[in-house]
Amino acid sequence: MSNTIRPAAVAGAFYPADPRVLQQMIDGLLHAVPIQPAAAPKAIIAPHAGYIYSGPVAASAYARLTPIRNRVRRVVLLGPSHRVYVKGLALTHATHYATPLGLIPIDMAAMQQLAALPQVSYLDSAHADEHSLEVHLPFLQTVLDQFTLVPIVVGEASPPQVAEALALLWGGDETVIVISSDLSHFHDYRTAQVLDQATSQAIEALAPERIGYDDACGRNPVNGLLQLAKQQHLHAKTIDLRNSGDTAGSYDRVVGYGAYVFN
């Protein structure tokens, strides 16, 4: 089978297209994170906006993976679909994802396993321009050594449907789960703080029933993780909670960003 590369779609928009500038930016974001000694997470939730807005919050989560950079061999990455209607979970036929920092091989065997589930199908158009997965990749390329990727775009899917897919690839220490989600959108600064705090409390309580349509754009993959995390007896912790008013935006219409780890 010949290689099929899904090229970077939002380089130069959501993050720098120049690899040197991009690497310097990510290194700076990671170095700014005050790391506290903690067990390495099995799963993280991190935001997916432009780096000037959500990069500092995403770095808070990704810095936690640095101590296990030699151990992780596979990343299962789920994010919401912003541009294409997806029923269930969408896979890609691509063999690699590309960023300015290089190519990431896709775990084709894992994709075939997932494709056997009734809620999972191949839909390359869902991946073509989707930023919710892509913006995480340069962080992963920086904090991990060699790894394969299982990229999944999540559309209309229930928590049990997402949880079933995650359980199939849960694995051991070699596998990390990454869920891509921003929080509330376009409220004033104080309203967003209240709403996002409530969402963070629901995540820490592993309570998907408390996270609704307007609480998180990645609510479907988030809620699937919460259901499975409860079954796996994991604990969730909020490690960063800010919004675009705290980073690079105005205070009248903000987007919320949270970083969470699951151990």
Give an overview in words:
It is a single chain. The chain has 263 residues and is α/β, with parallel strands linked by helices. The chain has one domain: LigB-like (Protocatechuate 4,5-dioxygenase, Chain B). The chain has 10 helices and 12 strands. The chain has helices spanning 19-31, 51-62, 108-115, 124-128, 131-134, 137-143, 159-168, 189-204, 219-231, 244-247; strands spanning 5-6, 43-46, 74-80, 89-91, 96-99, 102-105, 120-122, 148-154, 175-180, 185-187, 236-243, 254-262. Strand 5 and strand 6 (102-105) form a beta hairpin. The radius of gyration is 17 Å and the shape is globular. The protein starts with a strand and ends with a strand.
Name the structural class.
alpha/beta
CATH H-level name... which superfamily?
Answer: LigB-like
Number of strands: 12
Distance between the termini: 38 Å
| Regions with little confidence, pLDDT below 50 for 5+ residues | none
Query: Assembly type of the shown chains?
Result: single chain
Look up the CATH topology.
Answer: Protocatechuate 4,5-dioxygenase, Chain B
Second CATH tier, the architecture: 3-Layer(aba) Sandwich
The secondary-structure element order is EHEHEEEEHEHHHEHEEHHEHE
* Main sheet record: 9 strands, mixed
The radius of gyration computed from the alpha-carbon positions, rounded to a whole number of angstroms, is 17 Å
CATH top level class name = Alpha Beta
Mean pLDDT: 96
Helix content: 25-40%
Query: Count of helical segments?
Result: 10
Based on CA inertia axes, which overall geometry fits? globular
- Percent of residues in beta strands? 15-25%
